[in-house]
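Quick one, tokens below:
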């Protein structure tokens, strides 16, 4: 906080219902305001104001607002929702919009005029909030960044519940973290060579032919192979959740499975029942849907419970409407991004939403205001073996070529659609350690292709095709 410029801090509460208490803050630069307003998204089940993002915004001249979405709690805690329908509405869509309205009013009162442009940036649940804004409140923001959006909320968490059953119901189907390096190595061997560059990152995992059955143990169980039940579990994880009418939610893709943000953290846990998937899946069904703190994932029945979830909660929590015509009509621009190696939310879900917008709006119209960038080797919102820093979390060069936020502004304000965004991988978590690799992120369905000469660690030697 000591390194921040002088700013005015406004804290308030919004109460659109008798059970609402939407806490929010607006930070306003005391001098050097760039005339812009930034809305900031939350992660997980929200429950707190995102102070680091507020600090990053004011340090770059933005007036910015963040909210706890109407409750206090950790990001994996959904217990606040039990018996509180209005708080669930606040979390679902109302708090983000109300914070936008209040934030802009405070900006006008403080500076004596409206912001000339307004932008929103969020990842995960924040990506869902971003799409909720574009779909429900198209006048709130001129430009929106939706990263790894949890927008198909009910299906995402139904898939989580189904995966809990396949990985935990029978202890023999659980895959311990000690096997993940071998699985990742086998996936790289099957897929990395197809990219044209062998660099430990799978550029197009959706086109990879890795088969878990090739790892079936032949001479007893070990960390280098999978048992029959573990093969089945992996096939289910990669295949996604299916119902009588087809795919309910797409499966994961291989690559970037190890490391602090990999499959151990999200899918398997260090021990059964300790994964983020367990926390989010069980939290949703216990507290948001069935309002039964004793609910157990063993009772989950996809054919029944997906419909229950959609009927009861999709209208509040899902942001899957492909009709963005009102957002487009007022000149809005939307950038979607997702890490290919995301073990929290399959990148294929965002691809599906992007395709649905193209189908609804028409490809030519969609191309005029929507872009999707997929980051090979990036995990959930950042991290992973691939280049994963491009300004989405505040760490990047402050230009449209390297910073997704500046790329969005360049598009909104100058009409220049981003043809690529350069992502960076630093040698360590500290950017001061220096650059290890850069790679262009291309607008889907283009991918980065090596030109055939020069270092494969330099983005300049790749072209989007």
């Amino acid at each position: 906080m000591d390194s921040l410029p002088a700013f005015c801090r406004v804290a308030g509460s919004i109460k659109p219902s008798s059970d609402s208490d939407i806490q929010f803050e607006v930070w306003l630069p005391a001098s050097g305001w760039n005339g812009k307003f930034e809305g900031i998204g939350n992660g997980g089940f929200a429950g707190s104001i995102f102070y680091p993002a507020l600090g990053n915004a004011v340090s770059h001249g933005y007036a910015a607002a963040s909210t706890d979405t109407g409750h206090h709690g950790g990001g994996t805690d959904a217990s606040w929702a039990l018996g509180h329908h209005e708080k669930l509405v606040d979390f679902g869509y109302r708090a983000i919009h109300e914070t936008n309205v209040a934030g802009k009013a405070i900006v006008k009162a403080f500076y004596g005029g409206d912001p000339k442009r307004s932008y929103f940036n969020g990842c995960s649940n924040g990506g869902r909030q971003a799409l909720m804004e574009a779909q429900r409140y198209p006048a709130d923001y001129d430009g929106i960044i939706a990263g790894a959006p949890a927008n198909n909320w009910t299906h995402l968490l139904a898939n989580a519940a189904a995966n809990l059953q396949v990985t935990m119901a029978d202890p023999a189907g659980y895959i311990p973290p000690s096997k993940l390096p071998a699985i990742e190595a086998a996936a790289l061997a099957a897929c990395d060579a197809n990219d044209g560059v062998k660099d430990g990152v799978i550029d197009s995992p959706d086109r990879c032919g890795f088969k878990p059955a090739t790892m079936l143990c032949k001479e007893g169980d070990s960390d280098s192979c999978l048992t029959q039940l573990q093969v089945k579990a992996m096939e289910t994880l990669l295949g996604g959740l299916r119902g009588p009418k087809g795919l309910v939610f797409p499966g994961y893709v291989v690559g970037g499975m190890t490391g602090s943000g990999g499959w151990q953290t999200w899918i398997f846990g260090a021990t059964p029942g300790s994964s983020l998937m367990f926390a989010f899946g069980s939290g949703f069904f216990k507290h948001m849907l069935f309002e039964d703190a004793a609910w157990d994932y063993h009772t989950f029945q996809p054919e029944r419970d997906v419909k229950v979830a959609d009927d009861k909660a999709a209208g509040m929590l899902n942001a899957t409407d492909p009709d963005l015509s009102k957002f487009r009509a007022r000149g809005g621009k939307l950038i979607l991004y997702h890490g290919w190696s995301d073990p929290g939310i399959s990148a294929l879900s965002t691809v599906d939403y992007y395709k649905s917008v193209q189908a609804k709006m028409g490809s030519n119209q969609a191309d005029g205001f929507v872009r999707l960038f997929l980051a090979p080797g990036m995990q959930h919102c950042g991290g992973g073996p691939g280049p994963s820093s491009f300004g989405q979390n505040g760490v990047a060069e402050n230009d449209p070529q390297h910073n997704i936020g500046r790329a969005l502004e360049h598009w909104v304000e100058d009409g220049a659609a981003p043809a690529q965004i350069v992502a960076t991988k630093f040698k360590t978590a500290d950017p001061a350690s220096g650059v290890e690799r850069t790679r262009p992120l291309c607008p889907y369905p283009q991918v980065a292709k090596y030109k055939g000469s020069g270092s494969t660690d330099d983005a300049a030697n790749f072209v989007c095709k």
